[in-house]
Amino acid sequence: MKQKEWDFNDVSEGNSVLNILLNDEVIESYNIPANSEGGGFSDTFTLDGIDYVIGASTYDTGTYAVVTTEADDSYIYEIELVINELTENVLSINYYVPTAPYTATLSSALYGLSDDSTVPMLDIENEKKFEDYLNDDLIDFRHYLDLSSVKYVVNQSEREEAKQKRKEEKKEFKRMITPLPSSEEELLSLENRILKYEMIEKNEIVIPVYLWDEFGNVEDLKVFIVELERQGYTKFALRLLSKTSFLANIDAIKEIHDFTIFMDLNTNFNVSNIKSYLDSIFFHFKTIIYLGAHFLPTQMTISGDDLNENIIRTNFPIEVFQELIKQFPTLKYGDYCGFDRKTLSSMPKGGRPSARVVLSSLDKSKKVLIRRGWDDQDESITQSGERKVGMIHSMHRLLCDIKKGVLDKEPRISGDLFMDETICDADDALKSYCPDRTTPGEVKTLCIRHNIFSVIHNYISS
Question: Which neighbouring-strand residues pair with 41?
Answer without folding.
Answer: 56
